[in-house]
Amino acid sequence: MARPPRHTLSRSSAAHSCRLPKHALLRAGAAFFLATLVALPLAVLHRAALSRHSLEHPWGWDALPSVAAQEEEGAQGEDLDSEDLKLDRVLQKASMGDNTVILTTLNAAWASPGSVIDLFIDSFRCGVGTSSLLNHLVIIAFDSDAYRQCVKIHHYCFFLGTEGVDFSGEKRFLTSGYLEMMWKRLDFLRLVLEKGYSFIFSDADIMWFRNPFPHFYPNGDLQIACDHYVGNATDLRNIANGGFNYVKSNERTIEFYSFWYSSRLRYPGYHDQDVFNAIKHDPYVADIGLEIKFLSTAYFGGFCEPSRDLNKVCTMHANCCIGLRSKIHDLSIMMEDWRSYLSLPPSLKRLTPSSWRVPQNCRLKLLDNSAVLGFLARSIGQKV
């Protein structure tokens, strides 16, 4: 039988209570009197207890932290899991259809308004076929100040803090803080690969002028830019630059990144790039079947070895440059040069050779680039 509507039930109950017999009313009154006799002393005792509590905690605020503390204790055990879930979410949202993301890292020194990160994002907006790639960029912040600035200027940010370590200040080349930050970054990239995401990693002092994907090799597990390119994509004499690489997630790359990270113990005092240029010769790399492709500086250049043709250039890196002010100065001029190139009519772009006005402040005064590269090669026991 169908249940009657709620308002019908209410009216029936009310009508029935109005028709209670007299003896039922007497029994109800007696029960009420007995309940009152029992409840009254209990109420007095309860009120006294409340009064004592209110004298100790007049506003009752101390009762809430006990609950919050329990939640906090539970949260401490879940911190790692929650951060891992946050990373999963941001990678999933930013990834392309083939699970590829673009990654860069940021600390407070490079995050301030008008600093490196603003130039980096501006280059995507001014590049040819690059603005849409911002939808796939995740900025990894090494400190809370960098993270706060990141969320103001970009929609995909992830905070990668390290307890007891301050990564916020400018890290000069090869200082202990610089080395620790570089190795932290490398271990994070290994984690991204393990999660099944391929990536383009780009230092934030690299300007993106064209979509790089058409210029990657169809095969190759790890494709990496160079400080010096000898003309052959598979020649191990190429001097790799770890600031820009395209890595596919598979068993070989995951194993290589683990090997690369552990190799820091074999080469103390060296950063990840120098160690890469050493271990690329290790027989173990061939044993795991890793295929390395070195990217030509004609498309992926830098101050060490610039991309000379603005009709071809994809990225330009402020490498071979020490000091944040010098980087910002020369990167700003580079962006001006690019805008001047874009303003030319197509016929002039093809016929008129364009050139960069940089490096300026980034020009190494004591050592030229070939000397730097020679030192690098000698330090890791190879010939250029």
From TrEMBL:
TM stretches of this protein: 24-45
Pfam families recorded: Nucleotid_trans (PF03407)
EC numbers on record: 2.4.2.-
Keyword Nucleus applies: no
Superkingdom in the source lineage: Eukaryota
Swiss-Prot/TrEMBL keywords: Cell wall biogenesis/degradation, Glycosyltransferase, Golgi apparatus, Membrane, Signal-anchor, Transferase, Transmembrane, Transmembrane helix
Nucleotide-diphospho-sugar transferase domain mapped to chain residues: 133-331
Membrane topology of the entry: Single-pass type II membrane protein
Biological processes annotated in GO: cell wall organization
Signal peptide: none
Subcellular compartments: Golgi apparatus membrane
GO annotations of cellular component type: Golgi membrane
MF (Gene Ontology): glycosyltransferase activity
Family: Belongs to the glycosyltransferase 77 family.
Entry-linked PANTHER family: EXPRESSED PROTEIN-RELATED, GLYCOSYLTRANSFERASE
Protein name (database record): Glycosyltransferase
The organism of origin for this protein: Lolium multiflorum
